Amino acid sequence: MWVIREQIGLTGTKFGCGVALCGACSVHLNGEVVRSCSIPIANIKATDRIVTIEGLSPASSHPVQKARADLDVPQCGYCQSGQIMAAAALLRKKPTPTDQDIDEAMTNICRCGTYQSIRAAVHRAAQATAAPAAPRKPAA
Amino acid sequence: MKKLSRQALINDSRRQFLVGSAAVAGGGLAVGLPFGWGDTQAQSAAGASPLEVNAWVVIKPDDNCVIRIARSEMGQGTRTGLAQLVAEELECDWKKVPTEYPTPGESHARKRVWGEFSTGGSRGIRISHDYVRRGGAAARIILIQAAASQWKVPADQLTVSNGVITHAASKRSTTYGKVAAAAAKLTPPDPASITLRDPKLWKVAGKPLKRLDTAGKVNGSQMYSIDLKLPGMLHAAVKDCPVFGGTLKSFDAAKIAGRPGVQRVFAIKNRTVVVVADTWWHAKSALDALPIEWDGGSNATRSSATIDAHLKEGLTAAEAYAGRDEGNTLKAIEGAAKKIEAVYSTPFLAHVCMEPMNCTARVSADRAEVRVPTQNGEASHAAMSEESGLPLDKCEVYKQDLDGGFGRRGGNQDFTRMAIAIAKEFPGTPIKMIWSREEDIAHDFYRPVSQCRLAAGLDESDKLVGLHLRVSGQSINAFQNPALIKDGKDDRQLQGYWAKPGDAQLGYSVPNLLIEYAMRNSHVPVGTWRGVNTNQNGVYMECFMDEIARAAGKDPLEFRRALMQSHPKHLAVLNAAAERAGWGKPLPVGVHRGIAQFMGYGSYSATVAEVSVSPQGAVKVHRMVFALDYGHAVNPDQIAAQVEGSAAYGLSATFHEEIIIKDGRVETANFHNYPVMRLAEMPKVETVIVPSFDFWGGVGEPTICVVGPAVLNAIYAATGKPVRSLPVRNVKLV
After folding, report:
1. Which partner for B610 in B75, B444, B618, B622 could form a disulfide, CB atoms 3.0-4.6 Å apart?
2. Pairs of CB atoms within 8 A across A/B
3. pLDDT at B691 (0 to 100)
4. A137 within domain boundaries
């Protein structure tokens, strides 16, 4: 996490606890959501692929991001990067998650207590993804 | 799902990181830019810019109406709500409303033109609504006047909508952006002479408009203080003496000599060890490896057990402050047909904002500056002036949006003082000080510990004839504002039990009522924690009310109603919650209801909780229905968000949170032994707003005080045993 934040300068990944308990630092490592504060840089291989909140989508266009914005989920917003990375990873594995799936996957802490909206936004993102979309032009 | 086709590679010598190119261009660049001091907020306010129509409104040539917000945004939605109030009167285009923070230094220089900056006590909107609306209206009036003067027509022939001024008779129109410069030269009207729009006719305020600050919070671009990067900046990690009131004995800097990036290791105020390095990771790693010896002093023998014993003594001590003494309570209870007694207790709690305490400071011989997440910019300003020794006009605070405050970042500016003290050691160099989570939990201003002894008497017809309640616990004022306590009378600790209407009035009429406070302080620093004393006092009163109702053989709702006939607003929200929740209607097998009502921060709250308790004692909160009367509702969606957030914060405290004191220090360290509530435990929350339009109440805190008692009362209904000690995780329920 500190390499991401301090060396690379991508500060969307947050410091919350430093011991992998709160999830504010969640990123995708080879497609899996991981808590970056507890992964020493020495454990990262040259072939590993890390995606942070900044790389999740161009222009906040990921369905999880769009659903969060549509429902005005964030309050302070500090935990939201990690929450969004966790939700995006969940939807990749389970495109139409049940409430129980969300309970089990979304273990990140939000002290503002946006949990009810987070749950609604995960369902909304799932619906948006499942709905037949008009053909899109590939990103330039 | 869209594939991450736009990828860029960033090499960090050996490893490759994939990030979105768009984000690097946006977020990455923003991070790398030299964040000048004062270049992102209300610089245009320095002096009076030509487009500053008045202190609250700056209009740009492109018709953007910049609305100034003096209060802090920490997630509670105050920025959006205050902007709605200004925009309502300004009649500008809501799609063109950026906001900015004026700085405390500018406010000082301009004779506090923006009023107070304090964002606590749920006052952000209820205290400032009048003057910000007048600010918006005054701006509208002179903008219209400027157009009227230009067209040489009477101002009352003009109309305005969405920032477009029209003279229907001559079919002319212009925009705010075009007349702003002329308007800024006009003499503003006397604010007192302005008639504000009737809130029942509001078009922008009172509507569930979307927040103004969401976009940056879904893509990582929102900058928090902890994210700042300044040219030449160094990073500080700190360790304060773990025993409150203790001192530093020694540290062995030689043991960390030569570690990468470390610039200096030193102590401040003989109690805090500081490591300053090129990155925070280097500073923190070095600090963790540094051998430090502390002298805990006499406080090192204190523990939760000794503090609890001290409080317990206060429950029966001969002396206590009687905040309310009506009738002859002791005699009434003594002579009652039935007596009910109970003792409740609630622990110290930490705030645990998601972003640990931090502050970035730069101090030189004649200037001090901080960038800080603060609930009170003026308190930061005063603290930095004191700590730096520089006068207020040589100090400036640049506020950052907070990652939550919950009362931690208001009057207690310990983080600002510490950052200034460190920065003084590096003249001219910006220092970003960040606390570890462990440091954040170990050095809070905790929700005070308290206990409560209650006794009630019922007559032969099971009517409540006397109620005696005594709180024994630590006083926030005694720790923070001792001057506010006169002759040991600390009414603040009895918040929610007051007779006086308007702020935190008890909603019951009892013929013989004795409410006392026995001050029993400890060495642990205490402060305001969302809801402050209402969050404990609500538990005591409302849980005991269910115990009395049960002893009387009455339904908890009906029992309350009978005591609330002289308090119609309290009663109205209680009834609204009960009605929406379907009180009295059948529930699924194993699910039980609990109800509670209380008042705080000028607002009335009630809730019904639906709870089940498994045969193993596991509790599940299924649904909570809240009803609230805040007087005026400025943004119903943000109110609902605050209610849901209060539910989560209150449930977290009810079930999980507890600060343990051992050997004079906080034993609790991080989320493993300070568990907080997560999504899986969140019930379905419904919010019923009962607006009465005849007062202005707070929003952020009032509902937390009913969360715990409603849930505890539902557990009581489920198990038949009252829960009298928090958190619930320590209690064997079955």
Report:
1. B622
2. 242
3. 79
4. no
